[in-house]
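Its record is retained below.
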Amino acid sequence: MTVVTRFAPSPTGALHIGSARTALFNWLYARGRGGKFLLRIEDTDQARSTPENTQIILDGMNWLGLDWDGDPISQSGNAARHVEVAQTLLANGHAYKCFSTQDEIEAFREQARATKSSTLFRSPWRDVDSADHPDAPYVIRIKAPHEGQTTLHDQVQGEVTWSNDQLDDMILLRSDGTPVYMLAVVVDDYDMGVTHVIRGDDHLANAFRQNLVYEAMGWPKPVLAHIPLIFGPDGKKLSKRHGATGAAEYQGMGYPAAGMRNYLARLGWSHGDDEFFSDAQAKEWFDLPGIGKSPARFDTKKLESICGQHIAASDDAALLQELKAFLAATDAPALTDTQITKFSDGMYCLKERAKTFPELLDKAAFIMTERPIIPDEKSSKNLDDVSRGILKDLTPHLQNASWTRDALEQVVASVAEAHGMKLGKLAGPLRAALAGRATTPSVFDMMLVLGPDETVARLQDASG
């Protein structure tokens, strides 16, 4: 059997980080088994669904690297098929026409509340012969069992049992003939050949209502896996009060996609004590029994730690491409050809201990700036008359030096010694001259990346 999973977001807003994790779990499960990962846009809420929101979701998926098979499917485009299934259920006796008005339904519920009985609506039309039907608007409802229990096996939640007297005869088609979401989901999953439904546990109650359609149509049921929601550090459902919640926001903050995938995979799923892993390992290891039943807590510090490890371990060329994409996504100026060359040369010393792309860019300030270098307040304190004189003395030695790290260290050390100071004491003035900052990569790394001409020119500028 070919594994088929799906991610089915509603285009009524941005791609929430919880939804992104759901997409990731589906992607990992399918990709790790040579299966298919499908994307369905559940746009039946036409009042709130917009093409712009759909594009935001697609952009978020693309940023995260969660590629899907085939074209995205529009749920609203399948409305005729949903209606066909509802009519089939009506024809075979598993559904019925209900002519109860909203006023009648509300009156029923008011009476139920007054007598402290169940407010679950029981339609008086369930068993009425069609010959006695009025010529009036109606909805089509499914016939749910009202006695006994239904048990569903869930790969995460285990055996879950629901009392059938808590199931209503849910509406399949509204009075205007449009299908409801609960019907559309089941029909689409069946038609798409979905074998595994992996989604948030806020859909667990829906599974029992959707099961009615599978039972009535005699369709094979998919494997269910309802995953716990993501909480904030305070143990409450992740929301705006905790900070960023959308995938696009994390892209804008400069987190690398590989680090985001790694961290999201660990939110609610585990493989032993492994924290840092590659996509290949995640695809090999990911399985449904590894998902816990308790909500995971979003921890920004852990996210940063994982992302820092991924930046450090990334291929330099691939990291540079993602950096360019980050700049484009945040409407920042693109890198010049010279900057690209220097980034390529210096990525080895920039990516260590950088947890985000803004941090990487901050370390690369000496690349991004141009002469004349204007030292900031802190670094300018290292450029007094004495240090300027030493830099002036150092410049001709560097002009004749072999441009290797060992040679540069030897030249700088000998000049420092000639002035009666340790090499470390000269680092501050060098940082101010080369980068205009007090905190930078190693001065020798900066020299190697800048090259002899630019290094000497900056030192000459600083020494006056």
User: Anything to note?
Assistant: The chain has a mean pLDDT of 94. The first strand starts at residue 4 and ends at 7. The chain has four domains: 4-71+230-303, 77-227, 314-363, 377-463. The two ends are 75 Å apart (CA to CA).
